[in-house]
Amino acid sequence: MGTKTQGLSTRCIHAGEGRDAHGSPHTPIYTTTTFAFPSTAALLDVVEGRAAGSLYTRYGFNPTIQHLEVKLAALENAEAALAFGSGIGAESALFLAHGQRGIICLGDAYGGTMELLADQLPKLGIRTALLLGRETARLDALLADGYGLVFLETPTNPVLEIFDIAAIAQTVHAHGALLAVDSTFASPVNQQPLGLGADLVVHSATKYLGGHSDLTAGALMGSKDLIAPVFGWRKNLGTAPAPETCALLARSLRTLVVRVRQQNTSAQRIAEVLVRHPRIRRVLYPGLPDFPGHRVAASQMSGFGGMLTIEVDGDATAAAAVADRLRLFAIAPSLGGVESLATQPVTTTHHGLSEDERDRRGITGGMIRLSVGLEDTDDLVADLEQALA
Ligand SMILES: *Cc1c(COP(=O)(O)O)cnc(C)c1O
Hints:
Layout: H1 8-14, H2 40-47, H3 63-75, E1 80-84, H4 87-98, E2 103-106, H5 111-123, E3 128-131, H6 139-144, E4 149-153, H7 165-174, E5 178-182, H8 187-190, E6 200-204, E7 218-222, H9 224-237, H10 243-253, H11 256-274, E8 280-284, H12 294-300, E9 307-312, H13 316-325, E10 330-331, E11 341-343, H14 355-360, E12 367-371, H15 377-388
Parallel strand pairs: 2-3, 2-4, 4-5, 5-6, 10-11
Antiparallel strand pairs: 1-7, 6-7, 8-9, 9-12, 11-12
The site of pyridoxal-5'-phosphate (PLP) has 16 residues, from helix 4 and helix 5.
């Protein structure tokens, strides 16, 4: 079993794993939906929380799910973790469990998250406030008005805006509120929000944690006290992950560190090449010294990530022409996998927004977001250069 004092790679491999009766080094897939008990008293011990055990898979009480959750908690040095059937499943349960006093979203967020916060949760009577990064100063007044949860992504999609987690945590805690960070773009390899003062961390495990574009899952990590109320929402929203997915995710997590470090290295090199390219107007990447968020990123991240956004010299049609000429990068709206992907925010993630709203958030037609995979860096650079030629 992995422990807190071990390095992240060791925890990724060993946390939550234990030899089973046959000597399997990894937890098998228990496709089982319900589990039998030797006695009513033993069943009650699990139902009433006195003993950990398997009971019913939708509750998450299945060894394949529970062992994965030990590994997920270890990734963020958290006391507890819950696995979900998707990243948005994790966020829905988080908002319902901890958002009663109101939710402030700071900066841009994933499309589905925005739909929940702007439209769906307010219809249930949950008040939400959506602030741009440059409106961070309004946080104090809103918190004074009693909002109980602040949610942010860092780095954000697609402009890679960086928020100072430690500084924001201080403001949030001064008002007795909670800070939840969607750390999907960074992954636990590059950023550890709980160590910086955040209360909860959420991941779309569909991205770097899964890493192969072959599974959909989510994760929420935090203290036992803060995770406990989320459990009931996951149970009754029915968003626990399938055991098959959990085994696949545990398999992927064993190589998380080497994957992400290589993606960091490749993305940095691509950013440095493209920033000098005559057909590129801007490269948004936290690892570039003159990127606005670079200083904060360098202080709170141990790597700058595999995501960058380039802005070609031209409009959405010009950017589409470049994307269409890419051969290795596939045109697809996800990220974090072994294969490199390219997507235009205006055609996918931010397609539904008005022109004005895109302007407000700094999203332009010429932008192409790149998710750098694990192909040879030289091949990726060559692909981008031929597409831009
Ligand atoms: C993809 C994504 C989500 C949603 O995750 P799903 O697994 O698709 O539900 C949430 N936040 C971020 C930053 C994402 O990239």
